[in-house]
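Q: Sequence in, structure out?
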Amino acid sequence: MTQPLTPAGAAPGTAHRTDLWKPVLLRAAAALVFGAVTVFWTSPSAEVMGWAGGLYLLATGVLTLRSIPAAGLGQKSSAGKILSAAGSALAGAGVVVALLHTDLLFGVIAALGLGVAGVLELACGLRYRGGHVLARDWIASGVVGVGTAVLLPFFTGLGAHALLGVAGGGAIISGVLWVLSGLTLRHDARPAAGKP
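A: Exactly. Output:
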């Protein structure tokens, strides 16, 4: 008799999921691409900062929303609601930052979006610690998001390059963490998918 992918008594999200690694790696890719832009663009204008930061926040928010079903969560579950709010905060901040290009607005709005999303991811991770495969990743991502949000307003007076550096640094850290998570999930999903 073969073992089901989701055992009857297992907590939601604890079983191997064969498709969970995809949205995790997409989120990591968005973060790392943004981080690379911030590293290699030596003198960005406020418009470049707004578009790059806005697209990063929007993409991360949308990918967070799209990862909810892949994580085995329903939109109406408490974890689904928390992550929906986090994704919506990021996407909303991304739209505002992409449309309004000033250092002060970037520092404040991006900090609000990252801070709200970080607190929500941290809360979700702490609540589902030991009960979901992504709980530790939500905790780490939440801490990085809150840390970036706390630092960002202090750099508004230093211009676009400094703001992008802080946001990009947080993106690189969280991107590396999400890559490790995605590759681990991919590795764990292969044996589960290959069982007869």
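Residues 1-16 have pLDDT under 50 and may be disordered.
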